[in-house]
Design a protein that fits this description.
The chain has 5 helices and 8 strands; from the N terminus they run E-H-E-H-E-E-E-H-E-H-E-E-H. It is an alpha/beta fold and 163 residues long.
Amino acid sequence: MGEIYFYHLTRQTVSQALLPLLSKCLNNGWRVVIRGQDLHQLEKLDDKLWQGANDSFLPHGLAGSVGADEQPILLSIEAKIPPHDCLICISGAPVSEDEVAQAKRVCIVFQDDNSADMQTARSQWKSLTKAGLAAKYWSQSSGRWELQAEKPAVGDVADDASS
C-alpha cells in the first residue's frame, strides 16, 4: 500500500518544488504521473521542464503527445492513467483510495496562496486518513521541509504491537 505525502508550499511555486521531487523519483527508478486539472498549467510546466539545465534534464511528456506514454514522467489531466509508481496531484487534482493503494507514493502539492487548493488538500487529508491510509504533512514555512503531522495507516499500530 502506498504512502501519501502532502506538500504545503509557502516559499516555492509548484514547478520549483517539483524539480527536486521528480529527480528523487527518477533516481528511485519510479515512473511518475503528474495530474493537474488545468491543461494550460500542465503545458507551462511541460515548457519549464524542457528549459531545465542539461545536467538535470527530466525526461517527460504531455499526455496525448507522440510517445508521451513511454516517458518516465507523464503530465496529464486524465483520470485514467498508465501504470506508475508515483502520482503527484497539483491544482486540487483528485486522487482515490484505490490509486493510493496501487502506487508506491502519492504526493499532493498545494500552495499557501491558493485557498481552493488548500481546502481541497484539507478535504483529501480527512477523507484519505479516515479511510485508514497513512499520510504525512510536510511544510516549508520555516524555510526547509519539515514534517508537521503524520497519521499511520489503520492496522499499522496493531501490526507493530504484535511484533
